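Step 1: inspect the first sequence and its tokens.
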Amino acid sequence: MKIHVNGKDRDLSSGPRVALPDLANAETGNRTRSFPFSSSHARKLAHRSAAEEWQPHRAQGDQSTEWWNLTAAVGDPAGARYFLSWTVTHPGRHHLGQLRPEAVAQIKPGQDLYACRFTLISYQASIRKAGVPMMFVMNDHEVWDEQASALRLRDAQDEHECAWSFDGERMNLTVCSPTLAVSLKIQGGSQVIWADDQPGAEGLVWDMAGGSHSFSYSLPRLRIAGSVTYTDERGKPTTADIIGSGWADRQRSDLPADQLW
């Protein structure tokens, strides 16, 4: 079966994988990764733009965790409605004890783990792909494509890949694996809602009781169009062309290990 990804027809089956183009040779770099405030002036913390804050941040401690999330309500030409969610989580070292030992054993110095979760539910179309997980162990310097402003993930077996870009207005989300392909073009990201908990520190939320903090913003009115191709219960590739609306959240937080997984 053919699917259309990034302007090209590609095969999707339970056999050969569907590959994202040029991930292996993408120019990447994490030199600018840091805590999400670029300066402090007159007691006012200044964050970068939402597009600049899209990139991964350097860990501030063992419990420091960050994630990217897209939530959408979409429909297909036949009138079926879908709930769609895609989440990428970058856990802190303290959280790795919650994972399977074989997963933790893959992580070497200079590497980090990224966990992804895909959900597609439609009672009208009898689809329930809830919480489909993917794990990526990435070299730190290969996660961020600065030129494309994109988060790029691929596993060691070259079976699962994800590219998620954001330029301040438009997003492109592409996920490819042997049993799943997502290709979404998203617009409307220029409207940003920053967390507003502390005067003079837009985006920052303090937990006074626990002594921790989080940083977040949301893109609340996104317009979404594209396709999702998945393998159904019979092993048959099925494509849903979808259009609708949704929102994206970008957050970094210090979380206890039992609150992450």
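Step 2: inspect the second sequence and its tokens, then contrast the two.
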Amino acid sequence: MLNCTLSFRASSKVLRSFLLVGTALISWVPHFTTGIEWALRVGLHRLQQAQRHLDEPWVGIADFTMQIGCKKALIVLRVPVAAFSQGKALTLKQVEVMSLSLSETWNGERVKTVLVSLFERCGWPSHMVSDCGSDIKKGIVDTLLEAPNRASWISDVSHFVANALKHYSAKLSLFQQFQTLCTRIRGRLQQTRFAFLLPPKARAKGRFLGVSRQAEWGLRTLAYLHEKEREPSPEASTLAHALRGLKPFKAFLTTFVRKTTCLNKVMRMVKTQGLSVASIQACQERLGDLPARSPIRKEVSHYLQQYRPVVESTDSPMLGSSDVIESLIGKAKQRLEANGRSELNKSILLIPCMCGELTQDLVAEALTTVRVQDVTTWVTETVGETMQSRRRRELSRPQPQQPETKTAELFADTG
């Protein structure tokens, strides 16, 4: 259920199909609403477990979800420091959701209020990681100023590098022309035998997080075209006509791909090794592949150097990436869309179920300790009134009017 794009209603029908195979496989099939209640109770149990104090240092990762309807949620993840000190990028199995907060409007002060209340109840992190969004950054920085320990805020390396690329590349004439050409080539190749050469679509949001894909496509496509043109044929002529205008960008794309390849290697080191004296030094050496006067090299180098004093005072690497929460938000969006949700409602309790190990013992414990009433109370306090509940209240079906009787009047006349 939680690992595939299958709705609760469909999952109940899938289970019912096992009855056709044989009653020995499954004795009874729960209604899909029962499955929803079970999942929500497990989600609330996971959320409550993550709010217990840890005896070891841990790191917080925060981000906003996409806005669905009129609300969006602030999610805070918790991960023990020891979990990401293994030379591998974090996965959803290593983190747990410790806070889900919904609001129609978010600002730095609102974020601070939520985080201070959370950390005073559940303990303070050794440091926090998030993207560079102004609201969440201000809220976290202001919160950590009140921390009893020396906690630091770390900017996510992926968003930092993407913002640097955007700053130095978005306004370049050649970059803009290449983006326009990709759109035109896509229209020329669609529904043709060369559709396998379609350029990658530019993302509507955060397109610079994957901007290297289009540049790499351009170089590979030019190499493919060069091979085809070695032996003149009608097919090669047709392909060259569809890709017209791409060859003059070869020099620009070569330089751009060299730059993004270097930056991707730096990001990979930060994501897998964390921020430490050794990893910062290795990243600085890798940046040597870029020209000494490259502004983006100076920008990324400054990003790394600003954390050197912090990492020198710690014994273990510091987390420098929030990719795991981006992965969680993407998975949650897919899950909510599978259930046809047009707003954030009680289904947001499914998000804690997507983290950590979901074992049979854990599910049994959740269904034993968490009641349906507990879920209802949490939803009332955290989610509040939804659009659907308001629609039902405001646009309720009018009750059919009962025909009036004149019995009372008759008795009144007879006095």
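Step 3: confirm your contrast with the notes below.
The chain is about 55% helix and 10% strand. Confidence is low (pLDDT under 50) at residues 410-415.
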